[in-house]
């Protein structure tokens, strides 16, 4: 089968690896001149590490494995902790914070030269019976048996299939990135939650830390001094927030608005969408990249079973779980409005009555509900 993939992000490269291993002919069209190096770090957990292992992507020596994820109030009080070692025993997979650029490099390892066509921008498509024809902006034409749109939240392939061009924002944005770790976190990920919003900090290996601060979006006024805004919003929070804000002095800051995208159709004819192109979601709980890997795993299995029906059965098998992940990511935290009342000190302390073991079980249950890959190993469940 000839497959054209638009987008060399995590989902696109993962799909390319799996399809090549299955004996298909693959071309990846990527508008950037080279593999992207920005975007900070991501947390690979739940079904994500299992999918990467299936694709023979070795994460050893990359990023930092977590042993715990703690939730604290703005004053620093511990309210809950997820025991990642116990979670790993239950799920069979670790939790790894890894720079996005490192993960992309490992996904690209071993791909035949010329598989990824850099500096190539998708322009349009035309379905022709059992084939789909794809044109790039320079006029080059590709003919494929399957087109995969893995080109992100502003997917051109989605637009060509009749979807929205500009996905709506949720009212939040994350200022985030990778910096030298301002404090020694060990192997703990940390999220601090208060009425103003939330701040996170996680070790990412090699002395680096992934940080984020969530704020309302779009801003009420032009935000040309983001560090001043973050200090005003979070400057009186407990350690390590002051250390983080101090470490951001002189760092170029970038905002990433949160989107939630609900696409009416993920597939049409010989064309499918995956990852953010099909179900963009806020980065809360680090579900987005792992859901893209889940998409790849299901699509590969459906193609191996019946290529003719694979687009439809892939969408059927993935849509409900991706929608649940998106809903959880969207509604779990707030930076404005009535929901912030529940993020105050007293409500958060009451939430702290939940033992670590129960919190860990809750996270494990969540991952099983949103993962096709993990559910495939449970007796009595469909493998899709």
TrEMBL record:
Q: Which residues form the FAD-binding domain?
A: 2-323
Keywords for this entry? Monooxygenase, Oxidoreductase
Superkingdom to which the source organism belongs: Bacteria
Entry's Gene Ontology molecular function annotations: monooxygenase activity
Name of one Pfam family that matches: FAD_binding_3
Does the keyword Oxidoreductase belong to this entry? yes
What name does this protein carry? FAD-dependent monooxygenase
Species, as recorded: Actinoallomurus oryzae
């Amino acid at each position: 089968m000839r497959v054209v993939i638009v987008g060399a992000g995590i989902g696109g490269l993962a799909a390319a690896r799996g399809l090549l291993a299955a004996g298909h002919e693959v071309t990846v069209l990527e508008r950037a001149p080279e593999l992207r190096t920005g975007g900070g770090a991501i947390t690979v957990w739940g079904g994500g590490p299992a999918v990467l292992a299936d694709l023979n992507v070795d994460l050893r020596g990359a990023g930092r494995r977590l042993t715990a994820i703690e939730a604290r109030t703005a004053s620093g009080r511990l309210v809950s902790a997820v025991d990642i070692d116990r979670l790993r025993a239950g799920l069979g997979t670790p939790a790894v914070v890894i720079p996005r650029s490192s993960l992309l490099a490992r996904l690209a390892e071993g791909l035949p030269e010329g598989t990824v066509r850099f500096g190539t921008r998708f322009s349009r498509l035309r379905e022709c019976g059992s084939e789909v024809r794809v044109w790039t902006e320079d006029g080059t034409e590709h003919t494929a048996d399957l087109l995969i749109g893995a080109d992100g939240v502003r997917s051109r392939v989605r637009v060509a299939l009749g979807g929205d061009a500009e996905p709506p924002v949720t009212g939040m944005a994350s200022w985030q990135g990778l910096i030298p770790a301002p404090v020694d976190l060990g192997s703990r990920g940390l999220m601090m939650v208060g009425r103003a919003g939330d701040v996170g900090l996680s070790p990412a290996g090699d002395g680096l830390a992934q940080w984020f601060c969530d704020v309302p979006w779009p801003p009420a006024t032009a935000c040309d001094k983001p560090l001043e805004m973050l200090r005003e919003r979070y400057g009186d929070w407990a350690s390590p927030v002051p250390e983080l804000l101090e470490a951001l002095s002189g760092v170029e800051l970038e905002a990433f608005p949160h989107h939630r995208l609900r696409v009416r159709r993920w597939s049409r004819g010989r064309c499918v969408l995956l990852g953010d192109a099909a179900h963009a979601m806020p980065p809360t709980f680090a579900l987005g990249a792992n859901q893209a890997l889940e998409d790849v795993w299901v699509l590969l299995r459906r193609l191996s079973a019946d290529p003719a029906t694979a687009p439809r059965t892939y969408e059927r098998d993935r849509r409900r779980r991706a929608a649940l992940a998106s809903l959880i990511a969207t509604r779990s935290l707030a930076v404005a409005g009535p929901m912030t009342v529940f993020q105050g000190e007293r409500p958060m302390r009451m939430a702290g009555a939940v033992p670590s073991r129960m919190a860990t079980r809750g996270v494990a249950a969540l991952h099983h509900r949103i993962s096709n890959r993990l559910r495939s190993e449970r007796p009595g469940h469909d493998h899709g």
